[in-house]
Amino acid sequence: METVREDACIATERLQRDCRKGEQHSLDPVNKLQFRFLSRSENVSLARLLAAALAASREMTVAELDEIKVAVSEAVSNAIIHGYEGRDDCYVEMSLALTPEQLVITVHDDGVGIADIEQAIKPSYSAKRDRMGLGFAFMHSFMDAVDVVSTPGAGTTVTLYKDLP
Ligand SMILES: Nc1ncnc2c1ncn2[C@@H]1O[C@H](COP(=O)(O)OP(=O)(O)OP(=O)(O)O)[C@@H](O)[C@H]1O
Ligand SMILES: [Mg+2]
């Protein structure tokens, strides 16, 4: 997974270098979007629509687009509900990168963080009694890889990878 991530970074850096030099790149262009939005529940659907719109620029079935939407919804909902403990005045950051091989989506919050990531990603584990604990399970089953980096007291970054045909 690390290698895949490094590859995406290397491809992006090469394109940026070539753009600065004014060169045309032979590969498909990498498209990249970065934005941040308030931790309000209505922004969950906007975030997932943007991810699906970018994914739809490549060959993708409706079912696959729906899966990406669910995975993004789960990651963004977690940032709002758990990371920011339901506060609606904090910022969630999201980046979307489309490389020739992959769609890479990161969702970042500067919230409470996760003390035990291994436990958090277990299906049916939830810190809250009224929740199912299935968000990470959906992300894992609908995406090709999921990476979670978190620092208690500082925040969480979830990276979702979807391989493209
Ligand atoms: N961004 C985050 N910041 C802090 N804790 C998080 C974050 N994302 C997930 N967690 C922790 O990981 C646990 C598992 O997350 P998961 O999405 O799988 O289940 P859930 O959100 O509790 O329930 P569900 O998604 O089914 O409503 C959460 O209960 C929470 O403790
Ligand atoms: Mg969840």
Please outline the helices and strands.
Blueprint: H1 2-20, E1 31-38, H2 42-55, H3 62-83, E2 91-98, E3 102-109, H4 117-120, H5 135-142, E4 145-151, E5 155-163
Antiparallel strand pairs: 1-2, 2-3, 3-5, 4-5
Helix pairs in contact: 2-3, 3-5
The structure holds adenosine-5'-triphosphate (ATP) and magnesium ion (MG).
Tell me the total number of β-strands.
5
What gap, in angstroms, lies between the N and C termini?
18 Å
Number of domains: 1
* CATH-scheme architecture: 2-Layer Sandwich
| Structural class by sheet pairing and helices | alpha+beta
In CATH's first tier, which class applies? Alpha Beta
Characterization of this structure:
The chain has a five-stranded antiparallel sheet with strand order 1-2-3-5-4, covered by helices on one side. The chain has 165 residues and is α+β, with helices and mostly antiparallel strands. Helix 3 (62-83) runs antiparallel to helix 5 (135-142). The protein has one domain (29-163): Heat Shock Protein 90. The two termini are 18 Å apart. The chain has helices spanning 2-20, 42-55, 62-83, 117-120, 135-142, and strands spanning 31-38, 91-98, 102-109, 145-151, 155-163. The structure holds adenosine-5'-triphosphate and magnesium ion. The site of adenosine-5'-triphosphate has 22 residues, from helix 3 and helix 5.
